[in-house]
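Quarterly update, task 2.4: 2'-O-acetyl adenosine-5-diphosphoribose-bound model.
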Amino acid sequence: MQETLIQAVRGRLEETESLTVLTGAGISADSGVPTFRGPEGLWKNFRPEELASPGAFEQTPQLVWEWYNWRRESLATKQPNAAHVALVELEKRVKNFWLITQNVDGLHPAAGSRNLSEIHGNIWHVRCTACGKREINRTIPLPLLPYCQCGGLLRPHIVWFGESLDPEDLKQSFQALESCEILLIIGTSGVVYPAASFASVAKNQGAFVVEVNVEVNPHSEFVDMSIQGRAKDVVPQLLPCP
Ligand code: OAD
């Protein structure tokens, strides 16, 4: 059954000139990165509003940086897996390819993805709260209160709860969703907006929507084909023949 579904999707990917991919924490789970929800999820042990919100950073910036330093330390040991690599291969083969990721772990760019919107930011980027300058910073650990050359406090370049997505990322993502023939959704619970609405956006303009996940999700009603399995096992099998 799964094999038939995989073959069908592979056939469509062989033909298509326009593919958009949406990924979530599930694609990195196979690299050993914890997801957010579920029994082992990060939000089981930590309260997002105490660690990933502008209010938390205003009140206890040291605590927020301590948490991000801990995550950076752990992520520094992680490598892209076969699913990240397969998406790089798809990017080479499909004429119009765009990857939208909710992941901040940097594993897609590390694998070599280029046509990419990291809509929730990137944990390896810091941004000055005073001058707004953004840069890559892989120092581990950062001082608990890291400062910019201008004297302003640095923060992780991550979209926190209650904050808006970068308008350029949103524009690029909607363009990709509104023009794709196929939307491939990999490893997201589909509960955080606006990404939670992306399946319906693509579906409403006529795209064929495929989901790869270990379980069934809320946005599955917009999904034409659901492949149950681990990203690292399924995604490489979707690659069309060279
Ligand atoms: P979640 O933790 O909510 O969901 C992870 C999804 O991956 C679930 O649907 C799992 O079933 C699935 N999954 C787990 N392991 C998998 C595997 N090996 N292969 C395929 N699927 C697998 O993570 P997201 O949906 O990414 O926001 O969460 C969205 C946002 O919520 C995150 O970007 C983060 C969080 O708060 C910010 O940090 C701004």
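Highlight for this quarter: The domain at 34-77+121-158 is CATH 3.30.1600.10 (SIR2/SIRT2 'Small Domain').
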